[in-house]
Amino acid sequence: MPTPQPPLGPAEPADSVHRDARNLGDLIRLRSEATPEQPFAFVRGSTRRDGQSRWRPRSWQRLYDEARQVTQGLVELGLRKGDSIAVLGTTGYRWAVYELGIQILGGISVGVYPHQSAEQLRYLLDHSESRLIFVEGEDELATVLQALRPAPQAVEEQQEEGDQDIQAASTTRNDSSSSEVRGGESGDETGDGGADLETLAYVVPWSEELAARHSDSESRIRSPRRFRERALPPEQIEELLAAVRGEDIAMLIYTSGTTGRPKGAQISHGNVLHLCGSLTQAFPYLKSDCYFSFLPMAHATERNLSFYGRIATGIPTGHATHLSNLLAELPEVGPTIFGSVPRGFEKIYARLQARRERSGWLQRSLFDLALAVGWRRAEYRIAGEPVPWRWRFAYYFAYRLVLHRIHAAFGGRIRVLLIGAAPTPLPILRFFWSAGLDMLEAYGLTEATVLSHINSPRVRLGTVGLAAPDMECRLAQDGEILLRGPAIFQGYHRDPEATAETIRDGWLYTGDIGSIDEDGFLTITDRKKHILITAGGKNIAPASVSAQLEPESPLISHVHVHGEGRPYVSAVLVPNVPELLDWGMSRNLIPATQAEAWLSALGSDPALRDRALAAEIDPWIAKLSAEPACRYLLLEAVRRGNQHLARVERVRRFTVLGRGLDPSRGELTATMKPRRAVLERHFAPLLDRLYEDSSFGLEAEAPG
Fold first, then answer.
1. Could you read off the pLDDT of 75-109 as tens digits, one per residue?
2. What is the mean pLDDT of the chain?
3. What Cα–Cα distance (Å) separates residue 116 from each residue in 89, 147, 158, 630, 671?
4. Could you give the CA distance from residue 613 to residue 601 in angstroms, rounded to a whole number?
5. How far apart are CA 444 and CA 426, in angstroms?
């Protein structure tokens, strides 16, 4: 029996309310007036008798009313315009309510990723000068309470100085935070955490039960009841909204910190409203569209492009209950628009390719033929030309026989796939276009309010598209991409030096290297600081190399490319832990019951943050990755990927890491991006051996 999906609206152009909005609080007010009873989100509820999930709608009017209740609670606690207020939790309806309550007040929202360490959280709360934090669950509240305690260094200083001196020093520091630092002093030296985060006055758990359980142990805990009892009256709402200007800061979005401490990008109300305008001009939203949200709301793309873009256009979304439930819940909601980073689509692609390899000859032939037909149809659509009747006819049968299964994995109603945040391998783009799923690659930075380029309405595969409306783009002499326009951010919070380095003469220096073709389409090469110069003086972009190798095998999670000052390019292959376990189980190299238990655990924690679980799995990953059959598959994958690269770019020698990347050792950012500088240090012994020991590693490319 097919899964019942939420009904969608008519296939008519969506009406955006951003033009009349003064600020983000005004945006949700206008949306609630325009479509009060239409759904803002579908929230998963109870399970029916037939085993299917119920997805209950929450209306725009309800969202606005509950956001006004949050604003009332903030006002009662004495918070005001310009105060920083943090939200820590998973993406969902309650996150949206807190976010909009902060914006109606005129506060500055600070999104915090789940699973931060106490030290990381202490830094973010201290640097952002947050006055209140909303916290979702037991584990996250425990981290917040730990962050509230004095930092180890502060404890030692307190023990040496004595109680009276401590109080005086603490008072002096807080005075400095509220005056000198707010006046523009750099915050680099204040990021180790205050004595006990005295700027943070209130901690509000999302549930009453959680607040009651911990209120005796921490005096700053407040009940969430006051944020749900009554809404701020309309006349007071109007006073608050009238006081917020477009240039006022709406949010601090902290960068992932791949090169040190995260920096807080200041995004204004005007920045986000302009983004909404660019979206509606570049992308044809329909009233029948529906999103599916799973990225953290702390992520700039989810909060600005998806969340506020949907408020402007009135498009509903389904909220994933957990990342591990993503593939199961996608068909239940049946979105028409779905976006992810390349790695997400690469995993889907790798899984489908692995399933193809396990199929019989006839099934593989039908699969390849269907994709070939789909690609011929896609070529016309990418070029903006009518599809000849013979290819429309052939695609109809290819879809009915094979391709509908790929569509079904996304719910069967997908109209557009959006992809960004990193270079997308061309085979991934071709595969989804061949399957009849229009994949539009986009580009942007947090500092450019997420979107600066998109492949819409014109498309050119392998590029990130044309500049968004009102966005100027040019290249510096060294190829660095420069941007200018009304969506450029307002600078880094408490860091004027970094701001001055990033914005020069009105241009945002992105740190990315790229090229622009004669029609204006932009191609991203790599991060400027990541470009390698070999001993022979050749410039190599690691991202371009890894993008060709990673899709060649589902067993590969990441390829760390190395070659700075070396005679040739080498690499460390990081195994895809779930796929490698599945591969070992299918070959009886690992007990099936044990592997299935681990795969189930990995489904709820894809980043493998549980160190006890990692300690169990890592020895098996090392054993499986050393298997001759596995090494042969990886060797062939690297050789296939090398064929798409220039001779100087090809990986000559590589080794396989006997584990996955470890977030606890700083190898991954909060958004699960590899930290290249950290990996260079951690992999240094392996990389040195590749050049010094001819018996170590695998030879993928002949010298010369």
1. 999 999 999 999 999 999 999 999 999 999 999 99
2. 87
3. 11, 10, 26, 34, 11
4. 8
5. 19
